[in-house]
Amino acid sequence: MGFRVRFLGSGDAFGSGGRLQACLLVEGGGREFLVDCGASALIAMRRYGVNPNDIGLIFLSHLHGDHFGGVPFVVLDGQLVSRRSEPLTIVGPPGTERRVREAMDVLFPGSADAERRFPLEIVELELEQPNHFDGVTVTPYEVRHACGDPPLALRIECGGRVLAYSGDTEWTDALVEVARGADLFVAEAYFFDKRVKFHLDYETLRSNRERLGASRTVVTHMSADMLHRLEELDCEYAEDGKVVEVG
Fold it and tell me: Structural domain tally of the chain?
């Protein structure tokens, strides 16, 4: 069994290195789903030959535009372009339904209440509890990132394996719970060794590697500082289009 991750977007909020914003395509447990859906997600799907109508489930780590800003575009693509008929479920932290509606009405006034040609459901996660979605289980942990509603790191079980995802956060021991024994940990490393509020740096991740206990780590969401020091890393790093197999 196992799962497959394709980084549709591996960049930060500001396009460092010309990279697209946060978006992972995961295939496993008989499902295809997204983990985060940054504003450039639909562009990434077109670039890499992913049919948005094949995506029935989107998990959101937190409600910043580079992590959820693509949702209005995916919804309207299904309504107006791809003529979607299959259901779409958007899963995120408390506050997701309100924030998605607000984003849709700011970007495309009236779109939040438009009649859909497909079922659209928004689910807000119960923290530190397993939440089940047709062969995929996600357990969210609150982390530390200023974004208006609770930011989450996600522990996702599919295909008999575990994918851990830090989202955006400064160091917190919650990451130990998320990553413990995971087959793959996708972790933010915004700076190389500069410690700032609300973001992780590579040196902190490296110094806590044994505590985290993941079998494999891929760093993502990198600033220009990190991108200029990739040759110094002793773990894998994400790039737009990169595929990681976990068997």
Answer: 1
> Which CATH number is 187's domain given?
3.60.15.10
pTM recorded for the entire structure: 0.97
Contacts of 85 (CB under 8 A, 6+ apart): 53, 117, 118
Residue 203: name the closest of 184, 189, 215, 213 by CA: 189
pLDDT mean over 114-122: 95
Q: What is the pLDDT of residue 18?
A: 98
In a domain, 239, yes or no: no
pLDDT band at 166 (very low <50, low <70, confident <90, very high): very high
Residue 247 lies in a domain: no
Question: What amino acid positions are annotated as catalytic residues?
Answer: 66
d(CA 34, CA 144): 22
Let me know if residue 242 belongs to a domain: no
**Are 187 and 166 in contact, with CB atoms under 8 Å apart?**
yes
